[in-house]
Amino acid sequence: MSTLERNPRSLTHPPRTGLLLTLPALAFVTVFVLVPLVFAVYMSFTNWPLIGSYQFIGIGNYTAIASDPVFWKSVGYTLLYTVVVTVPILVLGYVLAVVVRANRRFATVFRTIFFVPYVIGLTTLSFLMVLEAQPGSGMVNVLLKALGITDGTTAWLADGPLATGLICVMIVWAVSGLTMVLLMGGMQGVPRDVYESAEMDGASWWQRERSITIPMLRRTIAMSLVISVIGSLLAFTQFYVLTRGGPGTDTQTVVMYVYQRGFVQLQLGAASALSIVLVVVIGLVTAAQFRLLREKD
Amino acid sequence: MASLTTPTRRHGSPEVRARHPRGADAAGRAESRTKTTLYWLGGTLAALVFLVPLAWSVLRSFQSNDAIVATSPNAGDLFSLTTANFRALFSSDLDILRSVGNSLVVAVCTAVLTAVVATLAGYGFGRFRFRGRNVLFGVVVVTMMVPFQAIITPLYLQMNAMGLTDSRLGLVLFYTTVNLPFGVFVMRNAFENIPAEIEDSARVDGAGTMRALVSVLRPLLIPGMATSALYAFLASWTEFLGALTFLTDDRLYTLPLALVNLQSGAYGAVNYGYLVAGAVVAMIPCIILYVALQRFYVAGLASGAVKG
Amino acid sequence: MELHRRTLLALGGLAGLSALLPSCASQLPEADVTAAGFGQDATGTVRLWCRAATVVGVRQVVDAFNASQKAVRVEVTPVLDGQYVTKLATAIRGGNVPDIVDIDDINSMLFIYRDSFTDLTPLVQQLGFADQLNPGQLALATRTGKHYGVPYIADNSMLFYNTELFEKAGLDPEDHTQDFDGLLEAARAIGALGDGTYGWSVDGNAAGILGFVVQPHIWAAKAPNIVGEVGDQRGAIADNDAVRRTFQLYRTMWDEKLMPQGNFSGDGSRWGADFRAGTVGLFPANFSVAALNATPEMRAKTGVVLLPGPDGGRATFAGGDNLCIPRGAANASGAWQFARFALDLPQQENLPAGGYIPVRSDAATAAYREKFPLAVAPLDGIAGAYAPTTLAYNLLFNQQDSPWIAAFRRAVFDGDLDGALRQGQKDFDRILEQAQL
Hints:
By secondary structure, chain A is mostly helical. Chain A is 72% helix and 0% strand. Chain C is built from 20 helices and 16 strands.
């Protein structure tokens, strides 16, 4: 960056112009993120309903969170979901990256194909899954029946663990492409000669991956982990579309519960307190992951 | 052809180093046949795993609802195709066109606005020195870590107070904010990677700040802008939670909300034929734009990873 | 990426900003319903929101209204039942309300307690047939003697039975629909007929349906599952014998395969298809599902009673829709003109054609009884119509993550009756506590 550092009194790049250029972005961030964030803190000390007037209730919302079994259940569920999908996403993403990083014919075509589900997006994919998960008629069941694994009448979405399993498979399939792209970017940054000398030493493919690629990709791996972990912790759409959090609250994620409290139970104050807790937790997770990443450097 | 072509070439950048001539493989140690076979086998197999479900969904959208919900369906029914779902979907009864239009307007405006604002900010952060620059950039990056999902409640009240709920403009501004940090990040990298001489030579010619930006730097910035625009488009085209929260007027519904209505049978009995056809309609623009812009897009995402 | 103390200071400054945010929840203005000419000779467009579940019945009346005159045009927007409360609340918050809402009567109270609906008392009292209105439904729109809405269509749960299967199994519909012993006996006998017949059927993964058809068994025993006044309510689940026995009945029928396997995942999208196909003996549902969509031949061999309690008694869900005019409605006058039209006898008498029951008891004329014999029971048994007055109905029963469906599934499909009742009690108490004003 040093060559880019400008003299503060630069004539061609006056500081004021620089500030001016960044103002629109800062305005967006201030109005739609920072102000609501501070506002959320304020609201979390009230019993603000969606309609009607509000009162301050001190830390009532926070003490209620501590003893709210549904919230903690959703926290546990979200963590479980995150743990279950994170490793497969990383592994599959890594394998796909190995395939497409090669300097071979068709690698670009493969790369394009592997990334398509991510591009289509979870919302659309979830809607498609709705009909394929139907007992009897859905393809998931038809295939499993054809393979002789089930009798084809499984009601995937009416059962907590089954629905979770199905959603996890779908998510791993859908978002591994992103991890692939990120890792591939990192892999192509590994100097060629490092590999060549390792090959001279007769290192096997896996030895080379383990001793060269993975250590050199640590930052990239950490970053793709941060992205996928945060994405999982904030999961909403696929659960809303496929299970609405049911049966019961068996597949309710934290964000769903926040939405539920705010916009179904109409208690914005209580929802804001949950929001604050969520922001703090996400912040801690991110900070921890970035810190790990920094120490390794 | 397999490598990432980041048009913003920089010396010693990972991408450039990765671009070794194809001959290297052939000249290197005899590449074993098994390795090649493995590559083709694995690649093709994986490609099928990713493509077949999507192709199947497209086929599904041409099946009748009866065939879709039939238990133990037979091949004959599944392959007797009809355009009835699409015709019903676009008829005045269901009028999916309106929500497609809403989604399109919102996503395109978001993409353009994000690219413009991110480019300006990227220029400011990447090329200028001013007091508080690092702090302000830090603020932008930190907002990346504040998930909008978590602050949706106060955000709703604030947008409501500003008259931005039940409004396409409100959605555009909201989506722009969500996608901005990534865009600023990409554009700052893009500016930092442009050799100072290029910009300086333009300025010697007497071009002002804006003119320098527009005429000289544009070709070098297109990849970054395309990346942030496409990223914003894809993220807002079928965004769910925000649309669900900020829209109550069904005339403004975006595509995902219309699909929920189809899924739940808001207009009578549930018809999965309509649902799958609607989902296929939602897939089309994503795939077209992605295939058209993927060279920039994938490179942009990947370079973000390298920069960390 | 560096984070400085100044960032935090900047954040602190923003705290001040946020205090400036408009925090007052200004109430929307109420229309003057006593103004001269209110509800007559209105003009313009009336935006009507209706529940997606009742869109067919509503459309029918709206079409008739639009055809009857030219000055006022009603536009219908169906809103998904699961999203209705959210959508209406956010619309009220946003000040962009429809002119009139066709709202699930059990959700009316939620908005009435938050002063969101127009007081219609003088208008309701002026109706010549005010005392004929369904009392259970009107009560759900009434607070401290004031009416904030008017019943419009009734949607009652009943127990339909297939007379042909009853005959084949040698059962007497009268005797075997009095109490749980009779029901179980009948279900077993019909299940024993074989040939793909089932004694009973219910969509076991549809929250709204389970609230609608399972609860009346409990109310018939005069053992409500929510007790106390609004503001101080709690659940009555764990120690409620009627709840226990109702779940037990379902458990037994599921266990003995008297219910189709598909009931486990039935989400309402194909509700009643099995009964209409003639393969189910007893079927708790509403008129629309069981009779309207059936063939005339099937209707001819269908009988109906209200839902019995464990040891007798009869009840029905006082379900249906009320018409309410939100405060801030732009065309309140046109809205009331439509409401009056919707309540007129010709429209009311014809409601079963769209699947619903009239809200006026004087609609049960001889011609009506002749035309819709399966839609008479709720009008004759109007005293058995009940629905709890609570602000939390939506949360307790209608949402897919509600405790009622959770308890039902745990008791019936998992066979954990005690656990279901214990957990249900906890969840009911928690939600009722959270939902107090």
